Amino acid sequence: MAKPKSKSTSKGATSPGFNKAVQLLLHFTAVLQFNYGVYIFHTLDMPNTVPFAGKFKFLTFICAIIQALYYIVSLVNDFVGTNELTPKKPPAVRRFKDWLMATLAFPVAINVGVTFWTLYAIDRELVFPKVLDPVFPSWLNHVLHTNIVVFIVLELFISYRSYPKRSQGLAGLAIFMGAYLVWIHVVKHYSGVWVYPVLEVLHLPQRILFFAAVVGFTLSLYLLGEFLNNTVWAKEVKLAKRKAN
């Protein structure tokens, strides 16, 4: 008798059951972690910091809110949306999830993590003065500056997303970064102090170069995310393009 053919386990329509469990575990853990991190950070009484605008003047805090929002949306999508790899008509929650990951969650998280730890290695007083050590828990520092990178990279590998048109994605990210640069200048105008100590030691031409480098680096991270997504999920990207045509 001929042996029955085994069923294919390719990534055709939906993620395998194991992958679904991993997605749920990652999203649930991230929701608890980043929402709790945002809450604790918001309640901290940080010495030698500008009171104007509270914690909302820090890109780290805004990034943590973006991560918390993204994983909430992802968890909602797990239950009422779809994790089908290439759905014909993705629901609104899935479309928003894909857009948020591509345009903000991935590039901003990598930017915050890489920039923070690079400046920390050069001179920690530029981004995280020692005076904060007694009031800023070490675990919270890693949630906000390390785990955001770890979790978003894991998400890239376990969840496929459809990237928006490159021009639209880059435009959305550029608007976000431009708005933040305007915002920290507003904070400087009303408080008389730069949000980050590193800006205090830079002259105007150096600050302009610094801002340009940060924006350019962040936009390049969008392209990196798109490249990694297209590499990790090459078959799904090709399938989605065929369906679109």
From TrEMBL:
InterPro entries: ADTRP_AIG1. This is Uncharacterized protein, isoform C. Pfam families: Far-17a_AIG1. One of its GO terms (cellular component) is membrane. It catalyses: 12-(9Z-octadecenoyloxy)-octadecanoate + H2O = 12-hydroxyoctadecanoate + (9Z)-octadecenoate + H(+); 12-(9Z-hexadecenoyloxy)-octadecanoate + H2O = 12-hydroxyoctadecanoate + (9Z)-hexadecenoate + H(+); 12-octadecanoyloxy-octadecanoate + H2O = 12-hydroxyoctadecanoate + octadecanoate + H(+); 9-(9Z-hexadecenoyloxy)-octadecanoate + H2O = (9Z)-hexadecenoate + 9-hydroxy-octadecanoate + H(+). Belongs to the AIG1 family. The keyword Transmembrane helix applies. It is found in: Endomembrane system. Its main location: membrane. Signal peptide: none annotated. The lineage of its organism: Eukaryota, Metazoa, Ecdysozoa, Arthropoda, Hexapoda. The chain crosses the membrane at residues 21-38, 58-79, 99-119, 139-158, 170-187, 207-225. Keywords: Membrane, Transmembrane, Transmembrane helix. It comes from the Eukaryota. It is a multi-pass membrane protein.
